[in-house]
Design brief:
The chain has 145 residues and is mainly beta. The chain has a domain at 33-129: Sandwich (Jelly Rolls), CATH 2.60.120.10. The chain contains two helices and eleven strands. The protein has helices spanning 112-119, 125-134; strands at 17-19, 22-29, 34-40, 45-50, 55-62, 65-69, 72-76, 81-84, 90-93, 100-107, 138-139. Strands 1-2-3-10-5-8 form a six-stranded antiparallel sheet, with helices on one face. A hairpin with a 4-residue loop joins strand 2 and strand 3 (34-40). The longest helix has 10 residues, at 125-134. The radius of gyration is 14 Å and the shape is globular.
Length: 145
């Protein structure tokens, strides 16, 4: 990692991605960690999934999110930190009626930076699941009716 500052309007290599309706702006990327700013519109979500090789966290800036760990639902608001350990299934939902902003991180970074580049603007759920699995993110099947 090079010493310095990533300015508020800056990003790693000028990148910004639209992933599942969220705007992700990478702020730091090394072999050991990936940190990105996220804008999470109301009504959007990341379906339940597992990172088998990474710990993940979210620091809430504005708005509210719900994190589902199986049947357990946790609510988080400004200033809260959400912890999603490696190997634990979690889904991220904005059901608040307003936009949320937050800072995500994973450690180690593994293949996630490349995954976001491949998912940028992708709308086909089956393709999202396939590409994600190639990058060490495993989406759970939808619940049975």
């Amino acid at each position: 990692m090079e010493p310095g500052v990533t300015l508020v309007e800056g990003s790693v290599d000028g990148k910004q991605w639209n992933v599942v309706g969220h705007t992700y702006t990478p702020k730091l990327h090394t072999e050991n960690a990936l940190i990105w700013h996220a804008v999470v519109p109301d009504g959007t979500f990341v379906p339940p999934h597992i990172h088998p090789t990474q710990d993940e966290w979210i620091i809430m800036l504005t708005g509210d999110l719900e994190i589902e760990f199986g049947a357990d639902v946790h609510k988080a608001g400004p200033g809260d930190t959400i912890r999603m350990p490696m190997g634990v299934a979690h889904g991220i939902f904005n059901r608040s009626g307003k936009q949320a902003t937050c800072v995500f991180g994973v450690a180690p970074s593994r293949k996630l930076f490349d995954l976001f580049g491949k998912l940028d603007g992708l709308t086909d759920p089956e393709e999202l699941v396939r590409i994600s699995a190639e990058h060490e993110v495993d989406f759970l099947p939808p619940p049975a009716d």
